[in-house]
Amino acid sequence: MAAIDGLRCLSGEAGECQLCYLRCPLRDGAMVLDGGRPTIVASACDGCGVCVAACRTVNDLGAIQLVLEPVTI
Asked: Between 20 and 30 A from 27 (CA), which of 2, 17, 36, 70?
């Protein structure tokens, strides 16, 4: 699943950047806008990484990372 670092995200209070949201193949499911800010819905995110790549094209700090979930064997 993906996770957004709110301190690094360029969306700001005015919602200037929404590229991760616009590129998400599961937009309005796994990635939604909350007050203009992209927000990940953990239960719907499949961890494809499209948002991570999109973020890094406009933000050198990379505000989104993939977080591995524990697997039970």
From this structure: 70
Q: Which CATH code is given to the segment(s) 2-66?
A: 3.30.70.20
Where in the chain are the domains? 2-66
Q: Which alpha helices (H) appear in 1-73, and where do they start and end? A: 19-23, 50-58
Q: What is the pLDDT along the chain (73 residues), one digit of tens a residue?
A: 999 999 999 997 666 899 999 999 999 999 999 988 999 999 999 999 999 999 999 988 899 999 987 777 7
Residue 54, amino acid: A
Q: Token pair of 27, please?
A: 């937009």
Strands 31-34 and 64-66: unpaired
